[in-house]
Amino acid sequence: MAESREENFYLAAMLRCPGIGCRYLRQLLEVLGSAEAVWRADRDVLTATKILSPRLSERLANFCRQHEAVPEEIKKVCDKKLISTVSIMEENYPEVLREIYAAPVMLYYTGTLEADARRVAMVGARKFSGYGQATALDFGEKLAAAGLTVVSGAARGIDTFSHQGALKTGRTVAVLGCGVDIAYPSENRKLLYDIADSGGAVVSEYEPGTRPLPAYFPARNRIISGLAEGTLVVEAAARSGSLITAEMALSAGRDVYAVPGSIYAPGCAGCNHLIQQGAKLVTRPEDVLEEFQIALPKMPAKSVMKLTAEEQEIYQVLSFDHALSMDEIMNSLPDGEIANLSYLLLQMELKGIVIENELHAFRRAERE
Asked: How high is the pLDDT of residue 11?
């Protein structure tokens, strides 16, 4: 295997040692010059760096001697699953991520991770509203169309819609709180494949096979914000992991943007609070692009879908921002009920005219 990859697997193995995290390893790399040098160092050499205590130096030295086969084992797994790696010592490591506190010393990824891409993070609630869903899809699509890579966490809700929107026009990066060979949540398996297959990347600091644990997600959030020049919070409650991501962006000196929402909606309280604290209020993708000094390109005209008379009647009572249940649609129809409403809605969904949410309510797929 190539020398740089050899180095990466020494790093990966040492991250298994209890008490040895990214900050310690990065400091040791700077002093000793290479991952292999750290791997081969004995207790006295490690202690002499004055980075680790004598006790921790002995622990790391003993761990490396007792686990000689681990680097090769991790390499074999990555080769088998076609997983790439990049370390903080390599030139193709994303520069903006290198700048953050406790930057990950190792990244595993599938797809294409561009070191110099311009990226914007988009995060938000797992429990989303129709307003949040529509906003994430719209912003994701248009920011990607302008050339930005959209970074998010592939969680249910706003993260998923941000990726889906970006995939329509450009690239997106998903940062996981588990191994890149694990689809979490499971329903996003195809989404993750599409991200990697379309010029984007699925990224994690955790080695293949790592299961998603609650403790991993706050750490994952620092990578989401760290990969981006700015972070957009689309929809978030007062207590939300998205706010942690925003705080990490601020601590790294990055911009934070927030989409305002109703003062009566608990799911918008986090965004409204961020705006109160100085986050830039954005109401359209162009507001974000102005900060990047990028213009929104002219979007291709949407093809006009021919609707039957009954479909047109249904479409007229739907809106882009607010989803309606089947009962609400039926009660809003000017000519009374339509016997085959369920079938017609399914046909309209297959045509891409309407979107059904997890509460089985429907809204228009496009803003007019």
From this structure: 96
